[in-house]
Structures are given as C-alpha cells and as structure tokens.
Amino acid sequence: MTASADAGSPATPPSSAGAGAAPDPGKVMEMALRVWGYKQGEVVSLMIHLGDRLGIYRALDGAGPVTAEALAARTGLHPRWLLEWLRGQAAAGLLGTADGQVFQLTPEAAVLLADEEGSVWFAAGAFQGAAASQQTVDRLAESFRTGDGLSFDDFGPTAAAKVERILGPWSRLALVPTILPALDGVAGRLESGIRVADVGCGSGIALLTLAAAFPRSRFDGYDPSEYAITRARGILAERGLANVAFHQQPADQLPDEPLFGLILTFDCLHDMPRPDEAARAIRRCLTGDGTWLVKEIRAGETWQDNLAHPVAAMLYGNSIASCLPSGLSEPGGAGLGTLGLPPSRLERMCRQAGFTRFQLHDVGDPANLYYEVRP
Hints:
Layout: H1 3-6, H2 25-53, H3 56-60, E1 66-67, H4 68-75, H5 79-91, E2 96-97, E3 102-104, H6 107-113, H7 134-146, H8 158-173, H9 175-179, H10 186-192, E4 195-199, H11 205-213, E5 218-222, H12 226-239, E6 244-247, E7 260-266, H13 275-285, E8 286-297, H14 303-307, H15 312-327, H16 343-352, E9 357-361, E10 368-374
Parallel strand pairs: 4-5, 4-7, 5-6, 7-8
Antiparallel strand pairs: 1-3, 2-3, 8-10, 9-10
Helix pairs in contact: 4-5
C-alpha cells in the first residue's frame, strides 16, 4: 500500500473513508454547486475573451441600453449570436437587463472590461485565449510525475502577449505618476539621466513607458524568453525610441559591473529558478547610490494569510499553470510558486545578496506590493 493510501488520500471514495460513512445529501448538493460553479467560471471566461476580442465591450461602453440588433449595427456582428452572448453575460452579472432583450454595460463593468487605455483595473486582457493548450496541459500532467518544470517559452508565443495585456494598463497608467513618486529621489534622477535595467522585462511595456517619460535616461531590458524579447523589439521599432535596448539574457548574465542607477523586477522574481542568484547579480550591477524596485504578488506569510485572499484558489491554480513550472524549469530550481515570496522571505533574500535597506510600499494595488531596496 502506498504512503498516500495509508494517509487517506483525497482520491478515496467518501463511502469508504470510514466505517459505515455515507455522504450527506445536502452536502453533496452544496459540493456539486461549488464544483459546477468552477466549470461555469471556465465557460464565462471564454465568453469574456470573445467579448474583448470582438470589441463588444468597447461597443457597449457609453452606448446606454441596447438590443442585440442595435449592437449588431454598431459592431457588424450577427444579432442572434450577440443575443445569446448578451444573455449569458447578464446571467453572469456582467451586464444589466430587465427583460433579456435590452442590455447595458455599467460604468463599473466598463472600467474592468472595456477601458484598456484608461483604467488600471482593466482585466479583460487576462482572459485572452484558453488557460492552457492541450499540449501544455499534457506537459503539466507529466510534470506532476517527474517534478520537472517548463520554461516561459514552452508555453508558446501567446504567453508573452497575454502577460503584456495583463500588466500593460498598470505600466502605462500607474508606474510614472504613482509608484515612482513613492521612491526617494528616483524620479529626479531619471529626469537628469541614469541607466536603468528591467530584469525579466517580458515584452517591455514598463520599460518603454519609462523610456518615453524620461528621454535623458537609457534603458536596457533583459529576459531569457525569445518570444518576449522578439515582441519587445517589435514594439520598440513601432514606437521609435532611441534610448532602449533589449537583450535575450537571464538575470545571471547581467553586466558584472555597477552600471545601473535603477533596476526593476516586476512580477518575476518568484518565477525564477534561482531568484537568490538573480538578487546577487542585481546587487553587483547596481550603483552604490542606486535603487532596486521590486514588484511582487501580495503573498501572505502563512497558509492562513493566503487563504484569506479573495482569489486564493485562482492564485494557486495560476501557480501550477505558470509560476511553479517556470521556477522548476532548471535542475535545482527554487520553485517558489505564485505565493512563495512573502515580504519576510524577500527581505531575507535581499539582505543575503548584500543589500542593507529594504522598504515596503503599499500603494493600494490589490494584487501587488512594491519594495524599495538599496545597497
């Protein structure tokens, strides 16, 4: 008998979990609603993606009450398909309707689903495509058997685009006016002109935002992902900024000299196989008066703290689908997972890397905390 069977594995049928035990019909019904509720979420996620992809939310934004026929005239889409989509969105509580014929997008829903350029709360980009392709699901299942992870590029080229849409609104709208002013003297140094590195830059949206705002500074983006860096260079070519360069290199290949007055790591340390080595590499290439700005998930210090998070189940699921595989993509990887870098652990890592000043900034971002780290 296996150890898991000895321990009473969750796979054991309830009827055999204990002598004479029988499932409570009321609790079965309660559990069934919970289970099918998660399936409903999967289907509604697809509908949100279609609404975003087809521009339906944008067409609804500011349109007031509309019928499927009126929405079809605005979008060029088929009214019968729109009616079914509208009714499903209303059933999910995302649209308002009194009769199932006339529908309206509320201002609050528009902030989350329609206003990608003007809202830091925009969320529809997170629903781009399926959670994972069948090939990726197969590889994740194999990871449970082997313990091996997947690199960011193993998830395919669409992963970089999805991350870009999730993080893009924050980068465009909050980084310069909200985050930088919280850091001691950083905005002034950027205006005068310093060298900046974004480690784990992805497709470069944060770095490009800073480069446009501070033309006297010079910006270098580093990421091991071929897909992300290719996308970043394409966006750079479109924007025509002359003070930015992107490098397909991991953190342990940063320059081995103090070149940078500001280094960024945004939502990526917990994904790295060796975040401690990344911290040491960052310390080596940061100037003595420089700043390391870290953006990390609001991870709790304990399981109970994380369980209190309103979307804890999603965060643990995202960890299996993305963060944990990345952290285990190299032999001996740390495998921190999405919620594996709470403030105390991050501070300990920074101090072990040679940093002496560590300040947490809570700017009201519901998903992330920010850390100002200095030599």
